[in-house]
Amino acid sequence: MDDQLHIIIAGNRGKILRLPLSRKKLWIFLSFSLIVGLTLSLASVFSLTLFTENRTIASQLSELREQLRTSAELMAEDRRENEEQQLKLTLKVAKLELNSVKQAVAFKAEKENLLSTAVNELAERSELIEKMIDSIGIELPVQVKEGSGNSGGRFIEQHDGSRNALLNRADRYLKAIRFLPFGRPVDGPITSGYGKRYDPVNGKSAFHTGIDFRAKPGENIYATADGVTSKAFYNGSYGNFVLIDHENGYSTAFSHMNKFLVRPGQRVHRGQHIGFVGNTGRSTGPHLHYEVTLDGETIDPFKFMKVANSSESLSLTSETR
Fold first, then answer.
1. CATH architecture of structural domain 190-319
2. Rg of the Cα trace of the chain?
3. Distance CA 206, CA 200 (A)
């Protein structure tokens, strides 16, 4: 027989309520209450955890929103700075372009001035070259004028064409001078000129085919124009002998040398050291016998030397080396 528990509830008016309860039912009730309590406790803990996590997430979201706002402000500031830098760069480029245009205009004016000066100098030098060549009886090439019959049209002045023509003309003259024997082969004085004279060995009347320069033994001998050495050997009465062909009909010969420094077939240039003064061959003392020939016939070298005596002509010929 189960034990009975009685729960007595007394009211304020003396009314009594009796609740009979068996031990088994009490255990069931307590167990149920415990389960309900545990469930509610777990639910409360879970709810508190969710609440805490939600607050944390809300705080993080707030921080992220603040960071986004700050980032947006920074990006806007960077954009403004970039736009300002771009504007400054554009203005700088425009300024540089303007300066470039100004420089181009200045360069063009300077170029025209230099070209004009160069053309005037070339014209003066060309005239000087013509006088030099005319003074020794050389005929300059005829300047061919362009144009022909049965043609016409509007005239348009071509400055560059005239400049080019003048440059070509001056270039031809300068090249011609390179191969003409101007100047002196040695620095010594002239002891015997070109033409009739009394032979220094036998005293008889003779024709001297060149010019004799007195010089000390071993003094330098120089080529008087560009060309190719055609002979370099011991040539009997001429002694040590060098013949240079200037490839334009002119040749120069150097005799009585102590020693020559060039060989046949070697190309030489004006002012090049080709040997030393000596007393070899038929000679009465150390000197250089110098000849100039045109198409195999000797001519007076002195007229070439007179042209070279002009300091301006010397500067011209030096530019052709």
1. Distorted Sandwich (2.70)
2. 58
3. 10
* Local structure of 204: helix, strand or coil: coil
CA distance 89 to 94: 8
In the chain, how many H helices and how many E strands?
4, 14
Q: CA-CA distance, 309 to 52, in Å (whole number)?
A: 114
Quick one: DSSP state of residue 278? B
Q: Which of 102, 100, 80, 81 is nearest to 92 (CA)?
A: 100
State the residue for tokens 């004016």: 109
Q: Dihedral of the CA atoms 48, 52, 54, 56 (nearest 10)?
A: 180
Q: What is the DSSP string of 61-120?
A: HHHHHHHHHHHHHHHHHHHHHHHHHHHHHHHHHHHHHHHHHHHHHHHHHHHHHHHHHHHH
| Amino acid identity for residue 273 in this structure | H
Give the span between the Cα atoms of 200 and 289, in whole angstroms: 13
Question: SS3 string of 218-237?
Answer: CCEEECCCCEEEEEEEECHH
d(CA 139, CA 122): 20
What average pLDDT does the segment 9-13 reach? 70
- Tokens in use for 217? 């033994």
User: Which residues, at least 6 apart from 194, have a Cβ–Cβ distance to it below 8 Å?
Assistant: 208, 209, 210, 211, 298, 299, 300, 301, 302
Six token digits for residue 242 = 């060098």
Residues recorded for the chain: 321
Give the pTM: 0.53
Judge contact between 253 and 242, C-beta under 8 A.
Answer: yes
Tens-digit pLDDT profile for residues 79-114: 888 888 888 888 888 888 888 888 877 777 777 776
SS3 171: helix
Task: List, for residues 248-269, the tens digit of each pLDDT value.
Answer: 889 999 999 999 999 999 999 9
